[in-house]
TrEMBL record:
Region called Disordered, residue ranges: 1-37
Composition-biased stretches (Polar residues): 1-25
SUPFAM superfamilies: P-loop containing nucleoside triphosphate hydrolases
Any one Pfam family match given in the protein's UniProt record, by short name: AAA_35
Species classification: Bacteria, Pseudomonadati, Pseudomonadota, Alphaproteobacteria, Rhodobacterales
Protein's name according to its UniProt entry: AAA-like domain-containing protein
Coiled-coil features, chain-numbered ranges: none
InterPro entries (alphabetical): P-loop_NTPase
């Protein structure tokens, strides 16, 4: 009996104060109900219970481990733009040249960098070129040439073919580096020679040009006629060397810029693929991805429900803003696996922190966007409509904005709203009485606090 009492105590069967005292937690109703008639029954009950618990604990650990692995694989998959990369790759392989517009900070550069890696692994020669700060075609030609050279072993076929072509163009007075020729021949002839040589390479090649619309805008502002000639020539070269694929990205509406300077026709051959912000599932997996969490000041857990509220407030799930907020989270909820849980207030506080004056620079791209990328009249009008739009999360109707902006014509107001919508700063709600509003609650509050008159 003594043995039985001790054993019973150890197993916690008869002690109602034991924390593990519910049948389901202990993993065996049979063990719970085991009659305490004699020692061997009790021993059996103990062993059964022990085995049940051990099995459960092992199974749940295994389950947890498997779940973590699945989550982390799914997380990587979901926020890694895998879908988009696959679509872009398929389109390029199918012979399309692409324009991929997306608002500032949405992940254009990140996505095309990863796409370049994907395609290089499949044997493509991918040249990546950022043209954001450019305003002249010789710089474009020089950078493209350097980037292509970087991708190739020096004694490559391209090198020799390109040199021969340049010799034929201007003779041999330029040393050994083709870059020296820039300035002596016009950029289009130089590009023609370069692309001809690239097209003859064994590898299938593609050129990814990041931020084309800025280049078009800056160039056309300096010299509209030359810009028109150059971009139409570039289109001809694309058609001529049609086995070289092109992918252009842009944060400002290429169509608006091209139309304004009468060179809309230079970009008509491109297939448009819009890079959207994350959806909620992608945003959740992005925030929970161990790689993202590693970069935060404090790593944290957050429930789907709490994240949902945050996402509604953010409105616009771009990785950049998710990262900004995530970095500010100071979790104060219960600990789980060595990490604290962020409560609703913690997420809210993180948003508020970003709106402090010291953090203004993090939103500077949007002020720049209005002040540098629009002509003066459009700029004044843009600021004119963004002020009232920033006053409320649900924005304003077109009629109200047009009335508020008199003497600007109703058409001018609608045009500027189209531009702001295409640049991703605002959107238009569906329905007959659609309302223009800021896409991001965070940027709206920044604008209201620091930019609106
Ligand atoms: N899918 C992603 N996973 C992880 N980080 C990402 C992802 N997409 C973007 N980022 C991060 O978000 C930030 C903005 O991304 P990126 O620079 O690619 O945006 P962008 O659209 O090119 O912006 P900009 O218009 O200012 O050039 C970067 O810090 C980048 O590392
Ligand atoms: Mg970029």
């Amino acid at each position: 009996m003594q043995r039985q009492a001790k054993a019973t105590q150890m197993s916690g069967i008869s002690d109602p104060s034991q924390p593990l005292a519910t049948p389901s937690q202990r993993g065996g109703e049979r063990a719970f109900a085991a009659p305490r008639t004699n020692g061997s029954d009790a021993q059996k009950a103990i062993i059964t219970e022990f085995l049940g618990q051990a099995r459960l604990s092992l199974t749940s650990k295994l389950d947890r481990f498997i779940q973590l692995r699945i989550n982390s694989r799914r997380d990587k998959f979901m926020s890694g733009r895998k879908n988009e990369r696959d679509i872009l790759k398929r389109k390029l392989k199918a012979g399309q040249n692409i324009h991929m517009p997306a608002p500032r900070r949405i992940g254009k550069t990140w996505t095309i960098n990863r796409l370049a890696e994907d395609m290089r692994r499949e044997g493509w020669l991918i040249v990546e070129l950022d043209v954001q700060g450019m305003s002249a075609p010789d710089k474009f030609a020089r950078r493209l040439c350097q980037k292509i050279q970087n991708q190739l072993p020096t004694p490559s076929g391209l090198h020799a073919a390109f040199k021969n072509r340049l010799h034929a163009l201007i003779g041999g007075n330029w040393g050994t580096d083709p870059i020296n020729v820039i300035g002596q021949v016009d950029p289009v002839s130089f590009l023609d020679a370069l692309l001809e040589a690239l097209a003859k390479e064994d590898k299938q090649s593609a050129i990814f040009v990041d931020e084309i619309a800025y280049f078009v805008l800056r160039f056309a502002e300096r010299n509209e006629g030359d810009a028109k000639d150059f971009f139409y020539e570039l289109r001809n070269l694309q058609a001529e060397y049609s086995n070289i694929r092109w992918l252009f990205t842009g944060s400002i509406g290429l169509n608006f810029v091209a139309e304004r300077f009468g060179l809309g026709g230079a970009f008509v051959d491109l297939t448009t693929f819009i890079l959207e912000p994350f959806d909620e599932a992608e945003a959740r997996s992005f925030l929970r991805d161990p790689a993202t969490q590693m970069g935060f000041n404090h790593q944290f857990h957050a429930s789907d429900e709490d994240l949902k509220v945050l996402f509604e407030e953010l409105g616009w799930l771009a990785p950049y803003y998710l990262k900004l907020v995530g970095n500010e989270v100071r979790p104060s909820g219960p600990e789980q696996d060595g990490r604290l849980t962020a409560k609703q207030e913690d997420l809210q506080d993180a948003m508020e922190k970003l709106l402090e004056p010291t953090r203004k620079s993090e939103f500077a791209v949007w002020r720049e966007h209005i002040d540098k990328n629009l002509p003066q009249t459009d700029r004044d009008l843009a600021r004119g409509v963004l002020g009232p739009l920033s006053a409320a999360a649900d924005g304003e109707t077109l009629d109200t904005l047009q009335a508020a902006m008199v003497p600007a014509t109703p058409k001018a107001v609608r045009d500027i709203l189209d531009i702001l919508q295409s640049d991703g700063l605002i959107d238009l709600t569906k329905g007959t009485k659609g309302r223009y509003r800021f896409r991001s609650g965070l940027i709206r509050r920044y604008w209201q606090q620091y930019e609106a008159d």
